[in-house]
Amino acid sequence: MMSFIIADLSVIPEAVKPVYLTSRLGMQFPILATFFALTFLPFYQKIHDVVLCISLLLVCYANYWLIVQCWKIAEFSFSYEGTLLYGLFCMFIMRLSFKFSIIFVLFTILGFALIIFSYPVYAGFGMVNLGFVSLGLIISLIGVKQIENAFGRFQQLNEKLVRLNQIDQLTGLYNRGALEQQFDLMLSVSNRIGTSISVFMIDLDNFKDFNDGHGHLRGDEVIQTQAEILRQVFNRETDTVARYGGEEFIVISLGINAQASEALAAEVLREWVRRKIKHGKGQGQDFVSCSIGLISTQVDKETQKKHLIDTADKALYAAKDKGRARFINADNLDIL
Ligand SMILES: Nc1nc2c(ncn2[C@@H]2O[C@H](COP(=O)(O)OP(=O)(O)OP(=O)(O)O)[C@@H](O)[C@H]2O)c(=O)[nH]1
């Protein structure tokens, strides 16, 4: 704005300099300074469109006032191009939303049309200039809409990518990467609120034999069934169920003690028994089952994710050793 003022003052007639300075320094500058100050408000993002639209319209109308005054005082045709510049700045640099851009463009064109129809400021070029300003602003409006659409699509794609990156395609559960992040979060939350955490490692029994005997596709269905059972049993908001890899799953649950954790593990085993899915292959059992190792502990600053997983894993392998289709609580590992 300062460079505009210096350039304008060297070309405009002496008689209009006072109104010029009033418009620029007494109106436009304070409006923009107030707008700038408002951007520091903590809730500014919520009012961005309203504040920007009103501020820039006020600046535009201060410019219109200047055009009219220059004409009235010295019949001097003050340039109108600043109107377009303010529009472009508002829509593309300050990113006014499409909805508010429509309001901005309508009022900007309306104000300029009022000048053209009320004063012969631009002589025979009045309508041409009005057309130029209107078309320029409408084309900018279309540009804003296209940018908004492109951003919307980009955001959707981004969300889809994040989902794809976190979700296991076969089961729809969290994958291992997402589990690691979720686990860290759950550990710090349970440390902060002083609650317990339970970790369950779940593994299908003799699944290699099942795959070899029934085929990989049936194997995939069994993996999906395991996911379904886990989702059904661990259905609280504070439960995280993930596919840890292959036919191995992990569940993290907050705020349940050892007894409740064992009850949930038993429920998973019962659900397999209820479903009676035939196995009968290799050295396998009659029906498909799984083994579970679990640990339930109070969380403190020292609690380590790796230690919890390793301990649940040890309990899982103890359950396998003991004959499968059972759960073992790591608390009992010493006495086994
Ligand atoms: N169908 C299918 N099979 C899988 C998938 N991921 C891993 N597997 C199979 O799961 C089987 C795991 O076998 P092992 O690790 O030997 O364990 P197991 O036969 O279940 O024996 P235990 O765990 O000791 O009861 C392998 O045959 C893998 O090929 C998958 O996404 N789909």
Description:
By secondary structure, this protein is of the alpha+beta class. It has helices at 2-9, 17-38, 44-74, 81-93, 98-118, 126-166, 176-193, 207-214, 216-233, 258-275, 305-321; strands spanning 196-204, 239-245, 248-254, 290-298, 327-329. Strands 2-3-1-4-5 form a 5-stranded mixed sheet, with helices on both faces. Helix 3 packs parallel to helix 5. 30% of the residues are buried. The mean pLDDT is 93. The structure holds guanosine-5'-triphosphate.
> What is the structural class?
alpha+beta
Strand order of the largest sheet: 2-3-1-4-5
- Count every helix, treating DSSP H or I runs of 4 or more residues as helices: 11
Bound molecule types: guanosine-5'-triphosphate
Low-confidence stretches are none
Count all strands and give the number: 5
Tell me the overall shape: elongated
Percent of residues in β-strands: 5-15%
Average per-residue pLDDT, rounded, comes to 93
Instruction: Give the C-alpha Rg.
Output: 35 Å
How many domains? The number is 2
What's the main sheet like? 5 strands, mixed
Oligomer: single chain
Q: Give the distance, in angstroms, between the N- and C-terminal Cα atoms.
A: 82 Å
Helix content: 55-70%
How are helices and strands ordered from N to C? HHHHHHHEHHEEHEHE
